[in-house]
Design a protein that fits this description.
The chain is an all-alpha fold. The protein has three domains: about 220 residues, no CATH class; about 120 residues, no CATH class; about 220 residues, Orthogonal Bundle (Hypothetical protein af1432). About 65% of the residues lie in helices and about 5% in strands. The longest helix is centred in the middle third of the chain and has 32 residues. It is rod-shaped and about 170 Å long.
Length: about 700
């Protein structure tokens, strides 16, 4: 006993959690975001197959061929070009005017000191030589000083003038450090040939001692010039064609090979924590937005656990397919029938939910591939496919959807190719074939998935409803054979319900099929219902309460048959809802007339009340058809009055409070009922018997001819 309690405890907790998710809007929202976000995050974090860990300098153990054309900027080639451009930039110099001024001042000062010493009358020749060797800022050696002293006045004047002018000329054209020696040599060579050797020696010494570089090397300007040269280099664009062998087996992998692999998405970057956090955050963000959209704008889908589960699985499957193919098989992505998800969800869940799910999938494709064209390829054709699927009542709509998807895919490919202006003709042909294949597969897969997943997730499809509407369905055949009156009553109710659903925008097919099966419980006791009675009425001899219970039992019996024959939920819903909790008025009044103590609750159907518009329509159609059938005179006035009475009774009794029928809808339903019933019970022209006989005489049987 203790072990049983321990085993049942987790089950109870699971049931409580399930009830919480179903009843608490916040818990439901959180559960959807958690499950869908986690599933899509795990799908995106899958390691993409067919990637490589090649590095520059390795020997390739297998060849790699490009699956698609790609154009990218080569960082290695661009950097090499930039380095060459920077190396070609000459050193940058900055002229310092202070150097020329300082040198000119020193030369002038030295010339002035030499002139002054030469003119000193009190000094002997040897003293003058010694004095010249001690001139501040000059370095005249003894021989040079001797030459300067021994020159004549004319010789010295020529040297002084030529030296001062030579220094000015040198600085005027600018001197760099490496050019100073050559510049001085050139100046000496330019001295007049008429000069004596001692004039040339002294002049050369004065120039050489006082001339230095005035164009100085500027490191900052050089770096700036090199940077400008690097920036002026255009990025080197590399084109990889589809089918090109990027790396050959046995060859040494170059940096350019690694770049090509990276551009094709074939390089395994290894674990990246930042990337993983980003993808997980993105997955939960998209799941949250999707949940809020469905909750706000697709309430019917949001309230159905199976539909939400199908949405989550569809989105996850879309992400898994992308993760498997991107980036290693980018060309194969164009063959994937992404639009099948949108078309299938449109049929099974609803257009708004399908649109939101497809947008979420396209966003995931975008972040996984980093390509805008793939986002458009996933989304645009899917929208066109959804537009072709209205109610998905025939396979022709899926064929039209396939054509729409193929056309949209070709349009997306064409638009992006015109922008990029490719030259790979083979690649263009492959993409076009992929677009057409994607369209065909989308229509085929959407059709198959709608049938298979609709059955698996217990979502009623048009195809299932059409099967149920077939008169040869076993349950309808039994209804016809065992309760022919009820069968024909159901046919009239179906016509009324279908027409009413059409005028208010409800689902006509669901309303018709629900009307077919709403009274199947009467097969258990056919003679208890007046439309199947051919002799006496068994209720004449029964207590009114017993009769009411017998009549009410057809709801319970109908649910048992519906479960046995696996009728869809939206059809089963109508079996108890077509009476709701309404009063079994005839037997209640009979009990009152007999003076019995009447408990009104005992004479009411078990319910529940209708919760869908189709169930509400069937309730009204059922009551109206039975009431009008009971009229002795079925003219326009009496039919209209009876329809008004039945509708008003259901409304006043609160039977339509839980379904989404507005007063405007009810008014339109009433008009539709009246129009159709007047067509069924219209007056016919009486044909006199003698006229019928004369017509018969004019057309004798074929056997007598």
């Amino acid at each position: 006993m203790i072990a049983f309690r321990r085993a049942s405890a987790p089950r109870l907790q699971l049931e409580r959690l399930r009830d919480l998710v179903r009843e608490d809007p916040r818990a439901r929202l959180g559960a959807f975001v958690l499950l869908v976000g986690l599933a899509t995050a795990l799908a995106m974090l899958l390691s993409p197959p067919a990637t490589f860990t090649y590095q520059a300098g390795q020997v390739a153990d297998r060849s790699v061929k490009a699956q698609r054309s790609v154009s990218f900027v080569s960082e290695s080639l661009t950097e090499a070009e930039r380095e060459r451009a920077a190396a070609a930039v000459p050193k940058q110099y900055k002229r310092d005017p202070a150097v020329a001024v300082d040198a000119a001042g020193k030369v002038s000062s030295t010339i002035a000191d030499v002139t002054r010493i030469r003119g000193e009358q009190t000094l002997t020749r040897d003293q003058k030589i010694v004095a010249m060797t001690r001139i501040t800022g000059s370095d005249l050696s003894g021989p040079l000083a001797t030459d300067a002293v021994d020159m004549s006045a004319a010789e010295w004047d020529a040297v002084a003038k030529a030296t001062d002018r030579a220094v000015q000329d040198l600085y005027a054209q600018g001197l760099r450090e490496e050019a100073v020696a050559q510049a001085v040599t050139d100046v000496v060579k330019a001295f007049p040939v008429t000069w004596t050797d001692r004039q040339k020696r002294v002049a050369a010494a004065l120039v050489q001692q006082h001339v230095s570089a005035n164009d100085l090397y500027d490191p900052a300007a050089t770096v700036a010039a090199q940077g400008a040269a690097r920036a002026a280099v255009a990025p080197v664009q590399v084109q990889v064609a589809a089918g090109e062998v990027v790396v050959r087996e046995g060859s040494v992998v170059t940096p350019q090979d690694v770049e090509k692999l990276r551009a094709l998405g074939l390089v395994d970057q290894g674990p990246d924590r930042a990337l993983a956090v980003g993808l997980v955050g993105w997955a939960f963000l998209v799941a949250g937005v999707l949940a809020l959209f469905i909750e706000r704008y697709a309430e019917e889908a949001w309230a159905d656990d199976n539909k939400l589960l199908l949405v989550g699985l569809s989105l996850t499957a879309l992400v898994v397919a992308t993760r498997v193919l991107v980036p290693a098989h980018t060309l194969a992505v164009y063959y994937v029938p992404y639009a099948a998800v949108a078309i299938m969800l449109t049929v099974l869940v609803g257009g708004r939910t399908a649109l939101a799910t497809q947008i979420a999938g396209a966003l995931h494709v975008g972040i996984l591939s980093g390509r805008v064209d793939l986002v458009a390829y996933v989304l645009v054709p899917a929208l066109l496919g959804m537009a072709a699927i209205r109610r998905a009542t025939t396979a022709r709509e899926f064929v039209a959807g396939a054509f729409n998807v193929a056309g949209g895919s070709l349009g997306v490919i064409g638009a992006f190719l015109l922008v990029s202006r490719p030259t790979d003709v083979i690649g263009l042909l492959q993409l076009a074939i992929g677009a057409v294949s994607s369209g065909a597969l989308s229509g085929l897969f959407a059709f198959g998935a709608s049938v298979l997943l609709g059955h698996l997730f217990r979502i009623t499809t048009v195809f299932e409803l059409r099967e149920l509407a077939d008169p040869d369905h076993p349950l309808l055949r039994q209804l016809l054979l065992r309760t022919p009156g009820t069968y024909h009553h159901s046919l009239l109710v179906a016509n009324l319900a279908e027409r009413a659903a059409e005028v208010i925008g409800a689902d006509p097919l669901t309303a018709r099929v629900a009307a077919y099966y709403h009274d199947i419980g009467k097969m258990r006791n056919p003679l208890a219902f007046i439309e199947n009675q051919t002799a006496g009425n068994p209720h004449d001899d029964l207590d009114p309460l017993v009769s009411a219970q017998i009549v009410s039992a057809h709801v319970r019996d109908g649910l048992v048959l519906a479960e046995r024959y696996h009728l869809p939920e939206k059809i089963r819903e109508v079996i108890p809802a077509h009476h709701g909790t309404s009063l079994i008025k005839y037997f209640w009044q009979t009990a009152q007339e007999r003076g019995q103590k009447v408990d009104e609750a005992s004479f009411r159907h078990p319910g529940p009340k209708p919760r869908s518009r189709e169930a509400g329509i069937v309730m009204l159609a059922d009551g109206v058809e039975a009431a009008v059938r009971s009229l002795e005179h079925k003219d326009a006035e009496t039919i209209s009055a009876m329809v008004d009475r039945i509708v008003e009774e259901r409304v006043n009794d609160g039977q339509l409070d839980e379904c989404d029928l507005t007063l405007r809808d009810i008014h339109r339903i009433r008009d539709a009922f009246c129009e159709l019933l007047l067509g069924v019970y219209h007056e016919r022209i009486p044909y006199p018997e003698d006229r019928i006989a004369r017509i018969g005489d004019l057309h004798p049987p074929a056997a007598s001819q």
